[in-house]
Specification:
Helix content is 32%, strand content 27%. The chain has 301 residues and is α+β, with helices and mostly antiparallel strands.
């Protein structure tokens, strides 16, 4: 097979591992910077050019689209789909996952357990907004944040009001979310390939930090998840429409709650924590499902 990996940085662990796993299985692999692609939008012969050459003959692509290039990156994925190339995660699903509000609304509509969440732009009625999510302590998130950036823990009513007031000057959309104290700075990353959780790890925040992201110094250990957590994470991925995803779950006194569904989950943390060849599992999935025209978007919304 001829596989394209859409990534801006070939040296990243996740990109390197996917290239390695694909080549071990005898496939031809090309790492393509999506920002250096340019497209011919035509009804009969849609095409993508890259560094002066026409990208032809690909059987599958694996999008590793960073949040900062979501718009252009998903346009490139969509163009490959128009050309009949199988995409591991389709453009519409990636767009859904990147829109925090949209993804939460889709999950909520299907009855997936979530932290109590409010969404706002105006800061005028901040007290009512805070009360709506059960008061402080609470989490306040900029809607565009990733890897724990743009996320604040407001431990008191006064702190929450101050942070929300600061957002007024940013002219930003933001989420307010109940703080799950019993999670104690821990969350679970379930790595989904197809309809299975192929690996799971518990991430624990470093001392003095409430965010468990590995990019922020969190620690990861393998964990055995419950049947309820397994079912919920697979359902969440399917609702968003992703074939491969990282579903982040909190353990609360009310049961598991989904925090986020990630369309480009990193491989380094999960492979090192669990010792599993997750990259190989992803390539195995591509082998089984890549065929011309198999680009029908799953799910609704």
């Amino acid at each position: 097979m001829k596989i394209g990996i859409l990534s801006r940085k070939p040296e990243l662990y996740s990109t390197r591992r996917l290239v390695e796993a694909a080549r071990q299985r005898g496939h031809e692999v090309h790492v393509i910077d999506p920002l250096k692609c340019y497209m011919n939008i035509t009804p009969h012969r849609p095409a993508i050019h890259y560094r002066g050459e026409n990208l032809e003959g690909f059987d599958a692509i694996i999008p590793r689209i960073g949040a900062s290039i979501t718009y252009y990156g998903t346009a490139v994925v969509r163009q490959f789909e128009m050309m009949g190339v199988f995409s591991l995660n389709e453009s519409v699903a990636v767009t859904r996952a990147r829109d925090k509000l949209r993804s939460l609304q889709l999950l909520s509509r299907k009855g997936i357990g979530l932290p109590v969440t409010g969404f706002a732009h105006s800061t005028k009625f901040k007290n009512d907004l805070i009360e709506m999510v059960s008061g402080s302590p609470l989490i306040i998130k900029l809607i565009e944040g990733t890897q724990g950036k743009g996320v604040v823990l407001a431990e008191t009513q006064k702190a929450a009001e101050s942070v929300i007031e600061a957002f007024e000057k940013l002219d930003a959309n933001f989420l307010v979310q109940e703080f799950i104290k019993e999670a104690a700075g821990r969350d679970i990353r379930c790595f989904i390939v197809g309809d299975k959780v192929v690996a799971a790890m518990m991430r624990k925040s470093k001392e003095g930090e409430f965010r468990s992201n590995l990019h922020r110094g969190g620690e990861a250990t393998p964990i055995k998840i419950t049947p309820e957590e397994r079912t919920m994470s697979v359902r969440a991925a399917k609702i968003i429409g992703l074939n491969v995803s990282g579903v982040d779950i909190l353990r609360s006194k009310h049961g598991p709650l989904v925090m986020e569904v990630n369309s480009s989950p990193g491989l380094q943390g999960i492979e090192k924590a669990t010792g599993k060849d997750v990259a190989g599992m992803i390539i195995d999935f591509v082998e089984k499902h890549a065929r011309p025209g198999n680009t029908r978007t799953r799910g609704k919304g």
